Amino acid sequence: MTDMSMMLGPVALRSPLIAASGTVGSVVDFARVGALEAYGAAVAKSVSGTPWPGNPAPRLANAGAGMLNAIGIENPGVAAWVDEIGPLLESLPVPVWGSAVGKTVGEFVDVAGQLAATEVEAVEINLSCPNLAGESIWALDAGATAAVVKAVRSAIDKPIGAKLSPNAQDIVGIAGAAVESGADWLVLTNTISAAAIDIETRKPLLTRTTGGLSGPALKPIALRCVLQVRDAFPTIPIVGCGGVRSGSDVVEYLLAGASAVAIGTAHFERPRVGRMVMKQLRAYCSRNGVDRLQDLIGGMQPW
Ligand SMILES: Cc1cc2nc3c(=O)[nH]c(=O)nc-3n(C[C@H](O)[C@H](O)[C@H](O)COP(=O)(O)O)c2cc1C
Which CATH superfamily does the domain covering 6-296 fall into? Predict the structure, then answer.
């Protein structure tokens, strides 16, 4: 039987699968429909310092090879999350990671601090949210990324992951800023900016016109980010994220250099997809004589 455990920096994972933030609610709700035993960790929906109302509907749309969303990180704020979800974390059959967002560095620090004081195993810093300037996101700028990661790093003792954006022109530069500022791992990636139009109404499918594209169309882009970052920083642990819905998708990310792989959009179609992915992964390993899954990390053979 293949050993499916992985090390992600300081965190030991029983499985390489992570349930991606925003696609499994608070994790508590997902426990009723998902197959949490298949995952090494599950990331709760991002929370901010004060409640964020989110964007008006329609904020989800089918975009052919993927899904468009512009939820706007609707969330009840960290205090409500800590009160309502915090006490339930221990009862879940999977380690939970919190996810912090903020419009200022101080808001990130406040949220991460409050999350870290609960039973969460780690805190993901979602740098793909807008900063106070409104139109830009943190993860497009190395200085802004470094400021957030550094401040959170010095404020909490729990492991932190920095979740980056495929919209970044220089993903290696942004990754470098996060690593040097103390991130324990990088999550590559969040959604990519995209749009679609209803030709009958001639309106965009989303009220905000543009949103984030996730699902199969994102996979080759996120995989490219993993390859580039792994090449530049061979020792930084990476969570590959984008379009994973099968065991072979996981193998691809591992070969590219990821140590774990997050599943998002696939949960909407198939909440127990994690169970199927692990089955396919085991079949691949037994077909290929892989005793330890970690032996696949970075195993891509160049031409
Ligand atoms: C409806 C929806 C909501 C999301 N909300 C969040 C969020 O709150 N925080 C976050 O870090 N990522 C969020 N994401 C991004 C996912 O965690 C993931 O990075 C992205 O969807 C790519 O993975 P996938 O192709 O497997 O879905 C959201 C994605 C979707 C589709």
Answer: Aldolase class I (3.20.20.70)
